[in-house]
Amino acid sequence: MVQELKESGGNPAILTMTPEQFTACLNLVHWSQRQLASILNVPRETVLEWGRGERSIPSDVVLWLKKRADHAQLNPPPRSPTVEEKE
């Protein structure tokens, strides 16, 4: 699972995500930063800044992305059988 998110300043309504957590979530859902920018209809530069930790990720995006990453981790896509499994 993706590391648990932190509440900012003790306020449960404000979630934060580190750049490392952000990258891990994108990897789990197999999205690039460019794809995420398109999905969210935000400038690509905004998503790049999130990934570099130069801009905080909005709480609603943090929660939404974490839910998708958790789902992807629990429900991975089917994989092709290996050569040994085919025999």
In what order do the strands lie side by side in the largest sheet?
Answer: 1-2
Tell me the helix content.
55-70%
Structural class determined from secondary elements: mainly alpha
Strand content: 5-15%
- The ordered H/E elements are EEHHHHH
What's the shape? elongated
Biggest sheet, open or closed, and with what strands and sense? 2 strands, antiparallel
- Overall pLDDT metric: 86
Count of individual beta strands: 2
**What does the radius of gyration come to?**
15 Å
The number of distinct helices, counting runs of at least 4 residues, comes to 5
Instruction: Return residue spans where pLDDT drops below 50 for at least 5 consecutive residues.
Output: none
Distance between the termini: 33 Å
Can you describe this structure in just a few lines?
The chain is mainly alpha-helical and 87 residues long. 55% of the residues lie in helices and 10% in strands. β1 (6-8) and β2 form a beta hairpin.
What's the topology here?
Layout: E1 6-8, E2 11-16, H1 19-29, H2 33-40, H3 44-52, H4 59-74, H5 83-86
Antiparallel strand pairs: 1-2
Helix pairs in contact: 1-4, 2-3
